[in-house]
Model the fold of this input.
Amino acid sequence: MSEASAKWGISRRRIQYLCNEGRIEGVTRVGKTWLIPLSATKPEDARRKTVSDFEIEHHKMKLLVKRIVLDLYSQKCDSNPKMAAYNALSYYASFLFILYKGKRHEVFRSPELYFIETNVKGVVPEYVPISKDYDHKCISENYQMIIANLGLLDDSLSWAYQYLKKYLANGLESTQFFTEKYMIASLTDPHQFLVSDKVVDPSCGGGNFLVYILKKKITSNHDQFTNNPVETISKALGSLWGYDLDKYLSLLSALNLVINASYILTNHNIEVDTKILSKLQPNIYASVSPNISGFLDSTNSYHQICNIMNGSRIKFTSFMDGTKYVFTNPPFQTIKGMNAELKAYLKKTIPDCNCDLCVAFLLKIIQCLPKRSSCGLVLQNSWMYLTSFENVRRHIQDNYQINTIIVLGSSAFADISGEKASVSLTSLTKKTPSDNICNYLDITSLSREEKEERLLHGLNNWTGTPQKSLFKYSSGSTPGLLQKLAERYPTYSNYATPMQATSTGNSKKLVDYYWLHIGDGDWKLVSKGGGFARWAGLTRYVVKWGKDGEYIRATPGSALRNVQYFGQTQLAYSDTGTSGLNVRLLLENQIFIASGPGIRIHFGDQFAHLAFLNSKYASYCIKKFTPKLTIAAGYIAKIPLNPELVISKEMSDLGFRCVKLKEELLSNCPTAIQYSGKMDGNTLSDMAINLISKQIQTEYEKIKLEAALNKIVYASMGMNEEEISEVESFLGINSQNSSECPSVKEIEEEILSILTDECSLSRTKVGRNALGCDGWLEYLANYYCTDPLQLARVITDNIDLLTKLKKKYLDLVCHNLVLNALAYPQTIKSITKLEEIVDNLSICNADRNYLLCWIKKDFNITHTNIMLKKPLYRYNEKNGIVELTRENIAC
Done:
């Protein structure tokens, strides 16, 4: 396997996966070892090949559009960045319009640019028309590629806006995620549209839904179009209705439709002259007067809207009249950071939405939808999960037919990195559900490319689910494992209360590292979250509390929550859920704030609770529940639980031992409150080697205990092998251990790449969907699909060969010896001579000299890195002393 890895330039972990998948020709398995023939060739990368050529080229063109519009913007951004963005968009829209009309690409002073800019001026009064031509080198160099791929640019005006929207600063940027084509296709392709069918997008953005449906209407009604193309496309455009709160976006949507309609006519040899252009009139609207609620105010009889291109006005109450279909991707925004006026409006007019804009749009749309009409929405998953939306689910379940639900999960949008929103595609019809069977599909574990492939090519393994039981257990998962467990066991909320935490209102000012406030009674140790850690850890933070939270109370935007339970709270957890649930023992006198909320136990043993919540099973439930990055308290409350687990002496013992082992691992981390700095050994080298060995042994013992508690949880919940496999597969856990271990040097390089200067784990996940790791031995075992015991033996047996790793730990040893000599963290010494640091150490003269040289050369850099760029001390070369770094200390 090592030879194949070197030969093909891919990791051993990837080769292990390819062998398991049968992707390497001629491979055989003997025991746990894969034997790869010398003649075997590297498999093609199916991770790329699974996506159709169309989608690959589509993404290439998106990147090209990005280069073009950013180049246009950069040429004029010096004097007025906002106007430069408007000009770049106008120029690109005109360029596209010209190409779609079958003309050459000269844009400056063209009728098309005049048409675009006249319309822009109508909605952006301060707009300044383009006064001189651009250097269009970027366009010229890629002109032939653009011409060859014009059919892939039908929604590119939306992309162009998305790439420039941050320069326009309309206040809506964080909520505007323009819809991907595969999402649009999934929601609209099941329907056959007549040319005259009224289709509405009440949050139309750049018009991606409407453009797609325009083309679908023409292709689906080809004979009608062939007989009378101009009239047909004019009627099709007139049947497409859109609204957006942002007038400029409404205009982009209208222009997008007109430009694409022109392209359709041009492709049928019809020249789009001024007369024909005047007939291309989509019904895209914006509010006449400034407004914060947009479509949510559509039932207000006093609310007027105007056609964004011709200025005609109608009452918003008539906007939905005669609608056959509604498709939309509403803004993704919750109460956090919401405008106070909008928050008050939602609480008053749509209380069941709980200040979630997605849910507010869902409720308003189904309220306004005519009978037997259908809607399809791109939504955050939260409406299917949270207790706060129980009324919403019940109302929909009782009154509407749910056609399909496709759970995409995170990373569904190509232009949004990370896991900022978990998405589902939901299709409803306004009619009595009766005994309706809903088609349900969960593809959260797939990459975005794989999601596209599945949905664009109809590779859907639907689960038919009776609507009446769809939300019986609001997990959003298929009625299977979680449904069965929920019916069998009570929820965790019967035995403990996960709580919301205090918001400081200004964490930069009121939350800090504990070593900067040693001895200051106003600052209290706090659970803040801030990463992944099971059992113990993340104890580096303090909050400026004072008397009864006086400093937080005095901060605008703060909210003190559940402070009356501080003394009764035993556990805390990180509310960032991408790596799984990670729960810690709350320390004595430690309070909790936002991102590190608390759990108050009212039945059972705290260590048994801790062991249960840190099980793989609990993380599986949470990762199934959570619709986005944050773990709400309500998700933990919903976990099905056999109550025997939280009173189990065996679980309690396992939890207690895991906490003690984790605290032992933290005892050499200067940023942890558990730091003791105890060193074993007579020489610096011995101390470094012993520290490596101690960490390996301690973490291995913890991994063994965690494996034991997972078995107990699975057995207690009555789960069979197939169900356990489902859990571990969903968490990205490879159950196949490779009998072949990587080379010692390969292991060393991998360890160094994942270690901080404190010799802690710098990253927790070996893959996007993987469960988080709590130490570097666990990380390596998962990365190499190797038994951690085998890995531990290889490292300890060859520790003398790991010279780079020993040097890293030697730096930590030297650093910690200095801190120990300064009595950190019990007290803060202001000035210490170097001789005082080394004289009291039981080490030989050679080691003393080495340590003196190390302090002079390396202490400042190492200490700064270890203490997270907030050093407590520094070596003063001029005076030959170690002194406090005054600028970082709150005295």
Summary: The two ends are 58 Å apart (CA to CA). The longest helix spans residues 684-716. Confidence is low (pLDDT under 50) at residues 46-51, 171-175, 473-479.
